[in-house]
Amino acid sequence: MRARSAKIRGWLVSLVSTSLVMGLGTSPLVKAQQNIVPGNAMTVRSDIQEANSKTGVITARGNVQVFYPARKMQATSAQAQYFSRERRLVMTGNVYVLQEGNSIRAETMTYLVDEGRFIATPQTSQQVESIYLVKDNETSPQPAASPTPAPIPSPSLPAAPIINPQ
C-alpha cells in the first residue's frame, strides 16, 4: 500500500510538473511559457498540489517549499498558490523567505514576480520580522585625525624666567 501511495504521489508530481512546463494544456499560458528562459524555473514542492488549467492557478498544500534560483530565493510555508496569469505567488501559514542572505517571516506573504516585491502581513497582534544583511562601505574608513600636537618651542627664543612668588 505504501509503495502504491508513493507511486501515485510521484505520478501526480510528474503530472503537475508536466502541466506547468507545458503551460497547462491549451490555455493562453502557452504563449507565456514560451517566453520563459529555462534558467528562470520556480520549483514548488509540497505534500499535495492541484493545478486548474482554466484559471491558471496552482495550489500547493502541506510542507510547501519554493525554490527560485533566478532570484536566489527559497521559501517555506503551509500553503502556496501561484497565479500564473498575474505572475503572483501567495504563501500562507508560517511563511519564511530567504533571499541572498536576507530573510523575512510572516503569516501571509505575496511575491510579485515581475516587480521582485514582497508584501508581508503578520498574524493578528503580531509583527512581520525581517533580517537584512547590511554591507559596509567598499572603502575602508579613514583613521580619525590625530589631535594637533602642542608646538615645540624654537631654540632661538629665550626661555621665560622662572618667578618664585614670596
From TrEMBL:
Residues 70-116 form the Organic solvent tolerance-like N-terminal domain. Residues 144-158 have a biased composition (Pro residues). Coiled coil: none annotated. It comes from the Bacteria. InterPro entries: OstA-like_N. Residues 135-166 are annotated as: Disordered. This is OstA-like family protein. It comes from Microcystis aeruginosa Ma_MB_F_20061100_S20D.
